[in-house]
Amino acid sequence: MTSESHVLTQKQISESFSNGNFETTFPFLANTIEWNIVGDKTLVGREAVIEECKQTSNYFKTITTKFTTLNVISEKNCVAVNGTAEFIRNGEQLSFVSACDLYIFNDKNELQRIDSYCIK
User: Fold this and answer.
1) 118: region left, alpha or beta (phi > 0 left; psi from -120 to 50 alpha)
2) Gene3D superfamilies per the record (predicted)?
3) Which CATH number fits domain 3-119: 2.40.30.20, 3.40.640.10, 3.10.450.50, 1.20.140.10?
4) Alpha helices in the chain (DSSP H)
């Protein structure tokens, strides 16, 4: 892990991921991480999750995003983040999503599992 990884809490890592700041979280992904995007797909392994994050980041560069975090709940190795995301292009709303992400960390402070629930 990088020196930056030593200063981020599980709560900060989780909020960064939920708000689309994926690269900040890469040092914290376990090699065997699972990301379950409920109703869509499950990604298994660090490289698969990073690739999905990069594709999503590339999409975010083509639009304006407005993320609003409503709640962050942290207990032991588990963090839950819920909020909304608005996606805008040329002044028009493309979509509005309500979301909740559940993060499970292992004993090495690495993200072991993410469950993402999104409602359009």
Assistant:
1) beta
2) 3.10.450.50
3) 3.10.450.50
4) 10-18, 46-60
Q: Where are the domains of the chain?
A: 3-119
Does pTM surpass 0.85? yes
- Reading the chain (120 residues) residue by residue, the pLDDT tens digits are 444 446 799 999 999 999 999 999 999 999 999 999 999 999 999 999 999 999 999 999 999 999 999 999 999 999 999 999 999 999 999 999 999 999 999 999 999 999 999 998
Q: Can you read off the two tokens belonging to residue 69?
A: 């975090």
Task: Give the H or E element holding residue 87.
Answer: strand 78-89
